[in-house]
Amino acid sequence: MRRGMLRRPSNRAPPSRAELQLHLPTNQLQAVEGGEVVLPAWYTLHAEVSSAQPGEVPFVMWFFKDKEKEDQVLSYINGVTTSKPGVSLVYSMPSRNLSLRLEGLQEKDSGPYSCSVNVQDKNGQASGHSIKTLELNVLVPPAPPSCRLQGVPRVGANVTLSCQSPRSKPAVQYQWDRQLPSFQTFFAPVLDVIRGSLSLTNLSSSMAGVYVCKAHNEVGTAQCNVTLEVSTGPGAAVVAGAVVGTLVGLGLLAGLVLLYHRRGKALEEPANDIKEDAIAPRTLPWPKSSDTISKNGTLSSVTSARALRPPHGPPRPGALTPTPSLSSQALPSPRLPTIDGANPQPISLIPGGVSSSGLSRMGAVPVMVPAQSQAGSLV
Description:
mainly beta; Immunoglobulin-like; 6-stranded mixed β-sheet; 11% helix
């Protein structure tokens, strides 16, 4: 009986195909510029061991998406690996570990990276497909900062020490310390950790020293320093400017005084100048007995004939020949007709035929005419 019995077919379903799962970190990865980083990635087939099975063929591609487009940075297809410079797989293929290595990182390498994998069995049938993305952030340490001193460091004055790093990611914070002659650290409000400025007020000689600024973020530190020397008097530039200004002012004043003195002397010299080689003026012969002079001392007329005589002998070179003036010319003396044998009385007339009495009635004023001596001087 039992031998003739047939087995009932089993109700169990045939085993299903394995499910592929790709594993990538969910948190953001960080790296430092200039270094390298590994982007971990691996896949598994559900209910199977993690190691690759004989005849299992993976097809792997990595992509990087920047702000403009998505680029393929590595591919492994049919046993051939193609990649961009500085990009490689950590493990040799075939392997279920698809981790990617990036070397010589730059800030522009920050962004999303996507891993895509297709797996086929030895018969060429697809075992599964998956794609996932992770985020990479490349940090930049602070570039060497520059330190500056703003203001004039004198006793009682105010100055500001500034510090600035040209490049960093993330943004840096600043710290100022005095190293020499004694250590001293500074805090707000005199210190601005964001702008990197340190305000020093009411300077004193004890505040002099070497001040160090440290620019730091989570991936690096850089520093610079400045030496503060506090002077007790005005700056050298101020002193030099004052000395030069004083000298220039004195020079201008001396020049004005000299110019005024020379100008006054030049105006006085023509009035007092007596030329030694000058020729004395020739004296005119004056009449003696026949001259007529008014009672009040005024020269009214000259009738002397000698005044009209030319000088004896030839004239000397350069000598002046006097020309008789109207008052020195001889005028005929009119005579009145005699009455009863009386002697005629001469009447003195000035040129023009007007008598002196007539001029007096007309309002004329007598004028003193200076006489000239034979030596040429006025009398």
